[in-house]
Write a structure and sequence with these properties.
The complex is a heterodimer of chains A (178) and B (365). Chain A is mostly helical and 178 residues long. Helix content of chain A is 28%, strand content 0%. Chain A has one domain (29-159). With 365 residues, chain B is mainly β. In chain B, a hairpin with a 4-residue loop joins strand 4 (140-150) and strand 5. Classes of the chains: A mainly alpha (178), B mainly beta (365). At the A-B interface, helix 1 of A face strand 1, strand 2, strand 9, strand 10 and strand 11 of B.
Amino acid sequence: MRQLVAVSLWLAGALLLSACAGSGDGLDQNGQPIGSSSSSSSGGGSSSGSGSGSSGATVSFQTIQDQVFTPICAQCHAGASAPQGLQLSQGEAYAMIVGVPSQEQPALKRIAPGDPDNSYLVQKIMGTAAVGAQMPAGCPITQPCLTTATIDLIRQWVSEGAPPPPSSSNDAGNPGEQ
Amino acid sequence: MNLRALKFWSLCLLLATQLLGVHAHAEPYLALREGLPCGACHVNPTGGGMRNTYGDVYSQTQMPQQQVDLGGRGLWLGNLTDFLRVGGNLRDDFTWNDTPHQKKADSFAIDDFRIYGVADVIQNRLQLYVDERLAPGGTQSREAYGLLWLDQHQVYIKAGQMYLPYGLRLQDDEAFVRQATGINYTTPDNGAEFGYQHGSWNAQLAITNGTAGAAENNQGKQVTGSAVYIKPGWRLGVSYSDNDGTVGKRQMGGLFGGFRTGPVAWLAEVDYIADHTVAPRVDEYAGLLEADWAFLRGNNLKLTAEYLDPDTHIAHNNQNRFSIVWEYTPMQFLQTRLGVRKLDGIPQNDLQNATEGFLEAHVFF
């Protein structure tokens, strides 16, 4: 009897949860309300991290923030408990990575403007870093690695000197900057 | 180990399990099944990592479907010398992933390879412990601390790098409750921990940098606490964490526990997170329901249902994660795990709707 009650409770809970998946109504692929500041530059379509690849056009930091950091990296790298103290959430990421020594390999900058090969963050997403696992965490086991197109996008931004979003920033929520 | 010693340890274990009225394994569901705290089987009083002597004996005599006769070698207890013990875990996976609008992928990879060492500098009093991750990637210290037991093992002080005491110490770092709280096996931190264990009570309070192992850059600290009341058939615990960082506070509170009905262990955790480090403030909820059914000796079927509301101020953005995992321990030192996880999130985000499968070989000693 006790077993039956437990099974029923668990099933009821699981069914309740399954009914709770977000419909996504009114949201962009990052789960932000369409038209809100943080969604304005992300565009539509898939958020699989495929990015647009390097097309010859200049890559903006906000594009990377919206297509990679916010939907993928900031799932873990956010808040005061972010792994390695690295926050990649909107408004925090740029100041945390550009010209900042990495924790795991202090000899390397997380992002060395103009030098993607010696940028630790690039090494981490390519799986060539000397320390630790390839990012995103779990790739390729529990989630896909970033696609070549996405990595190329980031490499291109670094190659172009890792320019900051307009109006500088490090301060949070200055979104919509392209 | 000779036959006499083997008999002695087996007898001790049998006696202990009979006294406690249950069988033992590892992971939170195993602790629940046994009515024991995590520290009953692990060197670390808060669980995870190296098994202690009891954990070693149990994992070799009670967990496997069949115990392979090792002849005169006896049981592995990890003793290199009278005061130095070692252990290890290797998880090697074959995984496949089906993400909408992406090419299906499968691969072999080492998920985790760790070695452990503990030096009982003063037996039952002062320990030095290390949990080192060797792969994937380069070597990384997960835990490295000194621990001093006081008051007849009722109180301890730990200092160094350690996993934070919060909620259920699940093996699955990807679980929403471990991801959203940011407290999991990938985020040990530097600081000190005070522990108390007496009767049915088990409590810890940790004061750490709040940087997940990175260098501290401010005077704010993370205070993390957990208290659990453990009875043979059930347990109930609360956790709290307040991290005062450079860019603001991140506060969390959680309730966790479980109960046992026959061969099934039922676990649950719910967490609320108020994150002031981002603007505007983000409030999150994460939840976990887990059922573990020991349907045959050496076999466990794990079902989990998870929930995440990544921002309560935004509607229609909730996510679910469902898993079914079969854990089979055919012999001592070896476990295989076969599982499927289905993510269910907003339709416009492909990663939130992926299906993942894995076959894992878990070798441990």
